[in-house]
From TrEMBL, chain A:
It is a multi-pass membrane protein. The keyword Membrane applies. This is Iron ABC transporter permease. Belongs to the binding-protein-dependent transport system permease family. Keywords: Cell inner membrane, Cell membrane, Membrane, Transmembrane, Transmembrane helix, Transport. One of its GO terms (biological process) is transmembrane transport. GO terms for cellular component: plasma membrane. The chain crosses the membrane at residues 69-89, 101-126, 146-167, 188-210, 246-268, 289-313, 350-371, 383-403, 415-438, 493-511, 531-553. It holds the Pfam family BPD_transp_1. InterPro entries: MetI-like (IPR000515), MetI-like_sf (IPR035906). Its main location: membrane. Residues 65-264, 345-549 form the ABC transmembrane type-1 domain. It comes from Spongiactinospora rosea.
Automatic annotation (TrEMBL), chains B, D:
PROSITE patterns: ABC_TRANSPORTER_1 (PS00211), ABC_TRANSPORTER_2 (PS50893). GO terms for cellular component: ATP-binding cassette (ABC) transporter complex. This is ABC transporter ATP-binding protein. It comes from Spongiactinospora rosea. Keywords: ATP-binding, Nucleotide-binding, Transport. PANTHER family: SPERMIDINE/PUTRESCINE IMPORT ATP-BINDING PROTEIN POTA (PTHR42781), SPERMIDINE_PUTRESCINE IMPORT ATP-BINDING PROTEIN POTA (PTHR42781:SF4). InterPro entries: AAA+_ATPase (IPR003593), ABC_SmlMolc_Importer (IPR050093), ABC_transporter-like_ATP-bd (IPR003439), ABC_transporter-like_CS (IPR017871), Mo/tungstate-bd_C_term_dom (IPR008995), P-loop_NTPase (IPR027417), Transp-assoc_OB_typ2 (IPR013611). Residues 14-248 form the ABC transporter domain. One of its GO terms (molecular function) is ABC-type transporter activity. Transmembrane segments: none annotated.
Length: 570, 375, 325, 375
């Protein structure tokens, strides 16, 4: 953690910050700590201790642990790398078609688990359109490679959006200084750009790691023989009705996540990387040498994969029979939009719309408290907030059941009503919104932390000095400067809400219809047309949501001049 | 008989009481401000002067509430305000590194504080216009900070603080990036606004001329401590320490042993006996320094003889600086308004004369050349 | 019956439904139409249902659990979550399809079978297999789809079927699985995936519940064909049970009673779920397996559930990790 | 007979050829640099002087290759280097906003360029140590930039460029945040290194004294154009335009009509006829300005009579500035080395005398008071 007081970045907390900190604390306590604690309580029983012993002596279990770590690290690295590649192309290369590339990079944010995996199988499977028929190679994507492929693709947009914002905000005079000292583009990249973006790289890495490790849906479809802890935990619940084991797996799953978190905080806490100052100068020079083409080509290649994958999804939703009969039809779409799916679409969208702003807001707020105001307390909030995604959704869902199913009484007086179930507060919707929020906060939190650590504290100090209270300074100065992070947070939160399933399934009531569980139902029954139509609709809704969020959040402020070629409006 | 209640004092009385700030991160910890005590009258213009890294910025930041003192208090109008957050202190600050809001235009930057105060639109606009005019920024109001030159940015930072018309203004080298001409008019503008509104000003500058001409009092700091706080002429001609004498302006020091000390002190320098004013701590028969400013020395070509010879001459336009080798060491002599054709070349024999009335005798407490070595 | 006195409870029934979404919707709708009692449901997989019922037992939100494999019901019973209710209508259900203590009753049967892609097989000159032995044919190398028994109930049923077929000899069962191993493309995680694989032509044949294969063919994958092994095949029983402490006990009982009637059991088949009704009098639609035409092994649900952990571990160690020659 | 090949010229000859830079973003577009042409000898020290926003930084940036000129060329040793990227130009720059790498310590910041050049470890370390000493930064090498005061940061920026010992050094107000004492020693250090290694220097400053004492030539810019490029004494005493006269130092302008122009020009000013040096463009019987620096005027108390009266006196320590009301307007007079006890009070009648040899006659091309109004 940071050295408190040693650093003029960090000011003592002031009265006005306390309400914010308390609100954040309340959220993570209620949304993460309490429910997780409830589950993990069972992971500390005598019965559980035997399971630990079993786990650490079983070669199979240790392999699974190793698999999990390898998967997390690979997905973290690949996803962050792809995100960085796209951000770099967008912010630094003088190439055509950047807007299109930008839009394509946003699409995978919507990845209903089944869709990408299924499309991937159809395209790159054994009998895949690309691998078999086009290239004629004997390859299938099942296993670790497929898992990394699918997860990296669906998670990289968070890294992309966050890094893009940071790159655009960075004071170009730092790069200029390095070049005048003789550093080549490559060296500037390595010694200045990358270290300064370290928070932006570490944040998404952690998020991707945690999500990959806790993800369940993709391993179920493409992991083949590659077992991971999350699916073990899931199996313990669904196959063996064994909560204790699930809790044990979750504890083991939490350890690496907390470890990565701690390493990241320690590593980043040691050096400041403020690159947005109140004394801007210099201009960004877009790379226009030949060297840009290979980089650009790589990005285009990945973009093509995305287009093909999602094109397949859309095609599947609009044709008679996926894989067999490609006659166009609107029947599936009609079923989703006007038939049995309608309510699910409406309910899910409504709940997501409710949860999104809360998640985005709290994510940034926690980041702000942690980076700027109270490094100690904030560090814990940050950790607790991140843990919201570090366990498989099923386990968190069980935590909610344990924590909130029964009303709380002190004596005979009910002090807190039941939140779960049809008879609960708001027909059980409140708890679903809370679950959505908790599962989506980390994205905003991680990108927010990265973006904030880039801002020179003088800017907020100036605002305070001119009479702004901390919250107003946050709103009028900090927020506009970390707008890309906010956009990322909100957009990702929305997508996450629309597509999350495992936590929610344990919380839905007869009154609520969830689009993803409909989708999985259709997929399980091999009604692929309908399932893919759901995916298509979901994608459209989320992209529309992005548009709305962009409208509400506003365009990013232009902080620097860009020279050297075509400039894209932002 | 009744007494009228004494008229309420103008607001803005500032008290720094044994302020200390230590940054603990380093080994050994850095003490940036060390027991600074200072009383500032309402409406007074105080300049902090001192070598780079002596704690000026840190002092301002503590007063503004941006930094918490490790020890000591800040008082405003009698009340201890240590716990008051910056936004609740009636102060505005010009930051050394500007701290312009990069996402706002020049106009919005300047209007920021007024908007916070919910001044009505028209009032804000006219205040901003007024500031733009005063700071010579007309026509730039819709630019972003990154579209400005360094000096233009600095003036925006200045304007943003000035429009606030607070009780206390804190300036951290607000004119460092401006040319002499502009600096002159900015100084006048600052002084005008400050006087008119009776604002208390704490002003950091490294420009001694600025300190001399603008300040009611100058506070000379060194390594976090106050060396002297006094009116400009006193700082210049009656420095409290050798450090102050050496830091503010240029000074020659001649080692002397006063033979008599009462109203003045009797000393012999450059072969001439004279009586000079003396610091109260100067004692008879204890070695002391005779301090003489270069421009109070006079120089005459001496053909043969004389008491020194020219080592080097540097032409400054409005004056020439000579370094003269004498038996008492090398002396700096400034000759004003020279005719470039009649400079004294190197090696010329000269006679240097001290004006005893404008010299000053200082006790020999610290070593002279240790001045300005840091950290 | 309409016009009777209003029941003393909430007058509706809340169901945790373990079958397909459409099945649940159609069934509850039919119940309400028939009895006038309101009904609402939440679709939950069996593990989720157990978790939810278990952790909500202080204030149960569900009255009835309907659908989903019997081993889940057994587990719930172990936790004491189910109320003992022996419906008068349960008498008609054969004994092997219900709990001896009467805690749960079977409402449908899923029968394991082979789902073949005739196009793929024809290209290899093969016909759909009709025995477990034919599945070992070398020409089917890497062409059999089956899920992993640890993650999929379907696959575990297939594994236990081998045990049952070999008279309880676990070693022999695993020997068979190891012989099959080279032919398996991969042990996928979910039980439905092999049906999808065969539909897309990734493999030639897969081991799945026959009703999944039928449902998939219904979608239009007309080259799919269901066959059954003549050595005998396993099955899964879908149950129904009353939840302990239900808030609407009267309506819930009426629901259970109704669910065991032939009419109720026919509903699923009308919405594409072709599991076999347990009530002998229930009509079977064209797509549904005629039980008499299939040889069933003696499938001991209780024993299967009890040895699951042990067996899947051995499977992992002795079969799953083996290299494919 | 054989001719030896002429000795290879030292590297670092710089040529700016009609450089123009227009920022297109605004309406109307801002022309920051306007047809700037300048030849710099190898090893020459050139200072750019000019009002805030006149295009100094932009010019440096074009030379460094950070900005592409809209038109014109930069030549280095005869070769046009417009297309050469900054890292392939043998130049180093001190940025106006420092641009220190926030993630590196002071030592690493300074060593950055040397590491890029793959200097061996020991050489780098000793160069860094040397720079730390020269820039008075010893003891700070392991700090982060954010743990430094403003002036310390500025010196790190300076050290980072100086250790490179490139062919051309570009300085953008490198000493603006330092106190006079330190600035003096930094100037000497810069000059020493620059001379010893024969580095060509382009130096931006707003400190005229700095410009006067350090430069081989001074380039005065105004609104993107060069007004004059000449040696310091010529800039001061023989300004090419009224703008230069007014911007560099202070100047009094008296309207006169020369009656004769040959070697000098015959004019009558303050009631006295005299012959003064004149700008080549001065014409007989065409109104012109007589330019006289305040310190070249002399002042004597006149009791009754005299040709002016004191309007205001400002004490500067080493000198006193008087504003004197005369019939020819208000004149500024600087009296050096004053005795504070004998200042001339306001209203005192005085006689002002012009030293014709240090006055200069300028054609009346532009209006004087329009100077320094911008943007
Ligand atoms: N990106 C930009 N867009 C528009 N105008 C600009 C931009 N950058 C600089 N300018 C303008 O160009 C002019 C020259 O700027 P430059 O930074 O070269 O000035 P300067 O001489 O260095 O001034 P200073 O002494 O204040 O640093 C200024 O008027 C400035 O406002
Ligand atoms: N965060 C920090 N950690 C450690 N030392 C610090 C920190 N901030 C400042 N210092 C040190 O405290 C001392 C005082 O700094 P301050 O910024 O107040 O100086 P200053 O008088 O404003 O100097 P300048 O004229 O150069 O701006 C300096 O020596 C500086 O190096
Ligand atoms: Mg400072
Ligand atoms: Mg500049």
């Amino acid at each position: 953690m940071s050295r408190e007081g040693s650093d003029r970045r960090i000011r003592r907390p002031r009265a006005g910050v306390w309400p914010a900190a308390i609100a954040c604390a309340a959220l993570v306590l209620a949304g993460t700590v309490h429910p997780l604690g409830a589950v993990l309580g069972t992971a500390l029983s005598a019965d559980a201790l035997r399971r630990y012993a079993q786990f650490f002596t079983s070669a199979t279990d240790l392999t699974i642990l190793r698999n999990t770590l390898v998967l997390g690290v690979l997905v973290g690295l690949c996803g962050t790398a792809i995100g960085f590649l796209f951000a770099f192309v967008q912010a630094r290369l003088d190439v055509p078609g950047k807007r299109v590339l930008h839009l394509i990079a946003l699409v995978p944010v919507v990845s209903p688990p089944f869709a990408v995996a299924t499309a991937a199988v159809v395209l790159f499977g054994r009998n895949g359109l690309v691998t078999d028929r086009l290239l004629g190679i004997d390859y299938d994507i099942y296993g670790l490679d497929g898992l990394v492929f699918v997860q990296s693709l669906s998670l990289f947009p968070v890294a992309y959006l966050g890094l893009l914002g940071m790159l655009r905000a960075m004071d170009p005079s730092l790069e200029e200084a390095a070049t005048t000292l003789g550093a080549s583009r490559a060296r500037v990249f390595r010694t200045v750009l990358l270290p300064l973006l370290a928070p932006g790289l570490a944040g998404p890495f952690l998020l991707l790691f945690v999500e990959a490790v806790a993800d369940l849906a993709n391993p179920l479809v493409v992991s083949d023989d590659y077992d991971v802890l999350a699916s073990q935990a899931y199996r313990a619940v669904t196959g063996h009705y064994d909560m204790t084991s699930a809790a044990v797996y979750s504890v083991i799953l939490l350890a690496p996540s907390i470890g990565v978190f701690a390493v990241q905080r320690y590593w980043l806490g040691r050096r400041t990387r403020t690159t947005v100052t109140g004394r801007p100068s210099g201009s960004v020079r877009l790379i226009s040498g030949w060297g840009r083409w290979p980089v650009f080509a790589l990005a285009v290649f990945i973009a093509l994969i995305i287009v093909v994958l999602y094109g397949t999804v859309v095609t599947g939703g609009l044709t008679r029979l996926f894989g067999v009969d490609y006659t166009p039809t609107f029947a599936h779409l009609a079923e989703v939009l006007f038939g049995t799916g309608r309510e699910a679409v409406l309910d899910t969208t409504l709940l997501a719309v409710l949860a999104t702003p809360i998640a985005g807001f709290f994510g940034l707020l926690i980041a702000w408290v942690a980076v700027r105001r109270m490094p100690r307390l904030g560090g814990w909030l940050d950790l607790a907030g991140t843990l919201g995604v570090a366990v498989p959704g099923t386990v968190l869902g069980i935590g909610y059941l344990l924590a909130y199913h029964a009303p709380w009484y002190i004596g005979d007086a009910q002090v807190f009503p039941s939140l779960v179930g049809g008879g609960a507060v708001a027909g059980g919707a409140a708890i679903i919104v809370l679950a959505y929020v908790v599962r989506s906060v980390p994205a905003a939190l991680r990108t927010g932390t990265a973006a904030l650590s880039q801002l020179h504290p003088n800017l907020e100090e100036a605002a305070a000095d001119l009479g702004s209270g901390p919250l107003r300074a946050f709103r009028t100065v900090t927020l506009p400067l970390v707008r890309p992070a906010m956009f990322t947070g909100l957009g990702y939160a929305f997508a996450r809400c629309m597509t999350s399933v495992s936590t929610i399934v344990l919380l839905v009531t007869p009154g609520t219809e969830i689009i993803t569980s409909r989708l999985l139902g259709a997929a399980t029954n091999n009604r692929h047309g309908v399932a893919l139509a759901y995916c298509t609709v979901l994608t459209c809704i989320v992209l529309a949501g992005f548009g709305v969020i962009r409208l509400l959040v506003g365009r990013d402020a232009v902080l620097h001049r860009v020279t050297g070629g075509r400039q894209e409006r932002r | 008989m009744t007494f009228a209640t004494p008229p309420a004092e103008a607001p803005g009385r500032l008290g720094l009481e044994r302020l200390t700030k230590t940054f603990p991160g380093r080994k050994p910890p850095v003490t940036a401000v060390d027991e600074v005590t200072l009383d500032v009258e309402p409406g007074e213009f105080i300049t902090l002067l001192g070598p780079s890294g002596c704690g000026k910025t840190t002092t301002l930041r503590i007063v503004a509430g941006l930094e918490r003192a490790t020890a000591g208090h800040v008082r405003l109008d009698g009340e201890i305000i240590d716990a008051r957050p910056p936004q609740r202190r009636p102060m505005a600050m010009v930051f050394q590194n500007y701290a312009l809001f990069p996402h706002l235009t020049v106009g919005e930057n300047i209007a920021y504080g007024l908007r916070v105060l919910r001044r009505d639109r028209q009032e804000t606009d006219s205040a901003v216009d007024f500031a733009l005019t005063g700071m010579n920024l007309v026509g730039l109001e819709s630019r972003s900070p990154h579209e400005l030159s360094g000096g233009q940015q600095q003036r925006v930072a200045l304007a943003r603080a000035l429009v606030m018309q607070p009780e206390v203004l804190l300036f951290d080298e607000p004119l460092s990036n401006l040319d002499a001409k502009l600096r002159g008019s900015m100084r006048a503008e600052i002084r005008r606004i400050q006087r008119r509104l009776g604002i208390t000003a704490l002003y950091v500058t490294h420009d001694q001329d600025e300190a001399m001409t603008m300040s009611d009092r100058i506070v000379v700091m060194n390594k976090g401590r106050i060396e002297q706080a006094a009116r400009p002429a006193d700082i210049y001609f009656r420095p409290a320490t050798v450090f102050v004498a050496d830091f503010v302006g240029r000074a020659n020091f001649l080692e002397v042993v006063p033979g008599r000390v009462d109203d003045g002190a009797a000393v012999t320098a450059l072969g001439r006996a004279m009586t000079v004013p003396a610091h109260p701590d100067v004692r008879v028969n204890v070695a002391a320094y005779l301090m003489a400013r270069p421009e109070t020395l006079s120089l005459a070509a001496a053909g043969e003889g004389g008491n020194g010879s020219v080592l080097r001459a540097t032409f400054h336009g409005h004056s020439v600086d000579y370094e003269v080798e004498t038996r008492a060491g090398t002396l700096a002599v400034t000759v004003p308004g020279p005719d470039p054709a009649r400079l004294l070349g190197e090696g010329t024999n000269v006679t240097v004369t001290i004006d005893p009335e404008r010299a000053y005798l200082l006790p020999r407490r610290d070593r002279v050349r240790a001045v300005n070595r840091e950290p | 019956a309409p016009g009777g006195p209003p029941p003393p409870d909430g007058g509706e029934v809340v169901i945790a439904c373990g079958a397909a979404e459409e099945w649940c919707a159609a069934t509850t709708r039919a119940f309400t139409a028939r009895t006038g009692i309101g009904s609402r449901f939440v679709r939950l997989s069996s593990g989720e249902a157990v978790a939810r019922i278990r952790f909500g037992r202080d204030a149960p939100e569900f009255d009835v659990w309907h659908g989903g494999p019997a081993d889940g019901y057994a587990a719930a019973d172990r936790y004491g979550l189910l109320a003992n209710y022996r419906s008068p209508n349960a008498a008609a259900i054969p004994a092997e399809y219900k709990d001896p203590d009467g805690t749960w009753t079977g409402v449908y049967l899923g029968v394991l079978g082979f789902c073949s892609n005739t196009a793929v097989l024809a290209a290899k000159g093969l016909v759909p297999p009709r025995s477990w032995a034919e599945l070992l044919h070398p020409a089917l190398r890497q062409n059999v789809g089956i899920a992993h028994p640890a993650t999929s109930g379907t696959a575990y049923t297939a594994l236990w079927t081998q045990v049952a077929r070999h008279g309880g000899d676990v070693a022999a069962a695993l020997r068979y699985m190891r012989a099959l191993h080279p032919n398996v493309l991969q042990y996928s995680k979910s039980g439905g995936a092999p049906a999808q694989q065969v539909a897309f032509g990734e493999v030639g044949v897969s081991v799945v519940f026959s009703h999944d294969c039928v449902a998939t063919r219904e979608q239009g994958y007309t080259h799919l064909r269901v066959t059954f092994p003549r050595e005998g095949t396993g099955y899964e029983v879908g149950g129904i049970a009353l939840i302990k402490g239900a808030r609407n006990p009267v309506s819930a009982r009426r629901y259970v009673d109704w669910a065991l009637t032939p009419q109720a059991q026919e509903v699923g088949q009308s919405v594409g779920s072709y599991q076999v009704p347990t009530h002998p009098a229930a009509r079977r639609f064209g797509m549904t397996v005629i039980l008499s035409s299939v040889t069933l092994v003696d499938y001991d649900t209780v024993a299967a559930g009890a040895r699951k952990t042990e067996l899947t571990r051995r499977f992992d160690a002795e079969v799953g990790k083996a290299p494919k020659p």
